[in-house]
Design brief:
427 residues; 21 helices
Length: 427
C-alpha cells in the first residue's frame, strides 16, 4: 500500500504547532497587559495582597485619636499608658495646648508613684516650658507651668505662672487649683483656701480643684473636711490611685488606721502588684504596733520590687524595733545603696536608712561602723528630734565601756513616728 506522507499524523502535527503558537502569543500579550496594570496600580494591589495575608501596614493614628486613647487609659487608672499616647499626640501636634496640657499633667500624676518616678516631674517641666514658649498667652500652658514648677520645688515661681493663667482665663478651675497648691506649698494658708474654694466654685467636677481644697483644709488642721473633699474627688475619678494614698494619710492623722488600710486595699484591688500600697500598709501597721503584719506587708513589697528603697527602709524600722539589729542594718544598707545608685542627692534620701542604721551599729557595740554613718546623717539636714537621737548615738560611742557593755541591758529606742507626710509629691 502506498502511504501519503503529507497527510500523516506528523503533517497534522506541524499544522497544530503553527496554530498553537498564535494562541501562546495572545496569552503572552494578555499577561503583559495585566502586569502593566498591576505595576500601574501597585499601591492598591499591595494593600489588597498584604491584607489578604494579614500583614497590612498599620495606619498612623492622628493626634486626636491618640489623645482620646490617652484619656481612656487615664480614666482606667493606667497613667503610664496614658503618657505613652499623649506623648505621641504631643509630638505630632506641638502647638495644641490642650494635648500638651494633658501630657504634662499625666507626667506629674505619675511622679507621685515613688521617688524613682521623680524624673516624670522634670519631664513635665520641660513640656510646660516648651508649651509656654509656643503659646505664652495660653492659660493652659501657664497652668501647666505652675503645676510643674510646684512639683519641682519652685513654689514662688509657680505662683507667678498660676497668676498669669488665672489672668488669661479667670474661670479656669485647673489654673486656680494649681495656684492654690502653690500657695499651699509656699505656706500661705488663707490664700490657698480662698483660691481652692474659687476653683471648686468654677467647676465642682474638677478633680484638681477638689484635691486643692482638701489640701488647703488639711493645712489648717481641718482633717475631716479634707477627707470629705477627697471622697468627692474619688467619686470624680475612682481609679486614680494617688487620691487613695493621700486620703489615707489624713485617716492616719485622725487615728483611723482601719480606714487607711482600707484605702490601700482599694488600690491593691485595682492593681494587685502595687508596691507603694504594700509599703504604705507596712508603715500603717507599724504605727499600729502590729509588727508581724507590718513585716509581712514590707516583705511582699520587696518581693514585687527588690529595688524599691522605701520598702527596705520600712522593713528596717520594723526589724529594728523587734531587736533584729543585724536584719535592720541589712535593710537600711540596701535602702541607702539603692538611693545612691538611683542618683538621689544625700539631703533627699531616706534619713532613717542612715541614722537608725547607725544606732543599730552602736547597739551592737560597733562604733567603727556607727560613727561615719551617724555623721552622714547629720549632713542630711535632720529635724531636731532626729538630730537629738543622732547625737545620743554618737555620745554612746564616746562613752561606752565595752568591758561592762551588755546589749540586753539597753532598751531599744523606738524610731520617731513622723506626722503624715506632705501629700503633694508624696512618695
Amino acid at each position: 500500500m502506498y502511504i501519503r506522507r503529507d497527510r500523516s499524523n506528523l503533517h497534522f502535527g506541524r499544522q497544530s504547532r503553527r496554530r498553537g503558537g498564535g494562541v501562546l502569543m495572545a496569552v503572552w500579550m494578555t499577561v503583559m497587559l495585566v502586569m502593566a496594570g498591576i505595576i500601574w496600580q501597585f499601591n492598591t494591589v499591595q494593600s489588597w495582597v498584604l491584607a489578604s495575608v494579614g500583614t497590612e501596614p498599620t495606619a498612623t493614628l492622628d493626634p486626636v485619636t491618640l489623645a482620646q486613647m490617652g484619656e481612656r487609659a487615664y480614666l482606667a487608672g493606667d497613667i503610664e499608658t496614658a503618657i505613652t499616647h499623649y506623648r505621641e499626640a504631643a509630638r505630632l501636634r506641638p502647638d495644641d495646648m490642650a494635648i500638651q496640657f494633658e501630657y504634662g499633667r499625666m507626667l506629674l500624676y505619675r511622679s507621685y508613684a515613688g521617688r524613682s518616678y521623680r524624673d516624670r516631674a522634670v519631664q513635665a517641666l520641660e513640656v510646660a516650658q516648651q508649651a509656654v514658649e509656643t503659646a505664652p498667652n495660653d492659660a493652659r500652658a501657664q497652668a501647666l507651668l505652675c503645676y510643674a514648677l510646684l512639683e519641682n520645688g519652685r513654689a514662688e515661681e509657680a505662683i507667678g505662672a498660676g497668676l498669669r493663667a488665672v489672668q488669661y482665663a479667670p474661670d479656669y478651675a485647673e489654673a486656680k487649683a494649681y495656684l492654690a497648691l502653690a500657695y499651699y506649698r509656699a505656706g500661705r494658708p488663707n490664700q490657698a483656701f480662698q483660691t481652692a474654694d474659687e476653683a471648686v466654685t468654677a467647676n465642682g467636677n474638677s478633680l484638681d480643684a477638689r484635691r486643692a481644697l482638701a489640701l488647703s483644709l488639711a493645712f489648717v488642721g481641718e482633717y475631716d473636711a479634707a477627707i470629705q473633699q477627697y471622697e468627692r474627688a474619688i467619686q470624680i475619678h475612682p481609679r486614680f490611685d494617688a487620691l487613695y494614698f493621700e486620703l489615707a494619710q489624713y485617716y492616719i492623722a485622725r487615728d483611723n488606721y482601719d480606714a487607711a488600710i482600707a484605702s490601700y486595699d482599694q488600690v491593691l484591688a485595682m492593681e494587685s502588684d502595687n508596691v507603694k500600697a504594700y509599703t504604705r500598709k507596712c508603715e500603717t501597721y507599724f504605727r499600729m504596733r502590729e509588727d508581724a503584719l507590718a513585716q509581712e506587708a514590707c516583705e511582699q513589697a520587696i518581693q514585687l520590687d527588690p529595688t524599691y528603697p522605701e520598702a527596705h527602709r520600712q522593713l528596717g524600722m520594723v526589724r529594728y524595733t523587734r531587736r533584729n539589729y543585724e536584719g535592720a542594718i541589712e535593710s537600711f544598707a540596701m535602702c541607702a545603696d539603692l538611693q545612691e545608685a538611683q542618683g538621689v542627692p544625700l539631703a533627699e534620701r531616706e534619713i532613717q536608712c542612715y541614722y537608725i542604721r547607725g544606732l543599730a551599729w552602736s547597739l551592737l557595740a560597733r562604733c567603727d561602723q556607727a560613727w561615719p554613718i551617724l555623721q552622714d546623717a547629720l549632713q542630711m539636714n535632720p529635724a531636731e528630734s532626729i538630730k537629738s537621737l543622732i547625737n545620743q548615738g554618737l555620745m554612746s560611742c564616746v562613752n561606752v565601756d565595752e568591758a561592762d557593755y551588755d546589749i540586753n541591758d539597753i532598751p531599744t529606742p523606738i524610731p520617731p513616728t513622723p506626722i503624715p507626710p506632705e501629700p503633694i509629691g508624696v512618695f
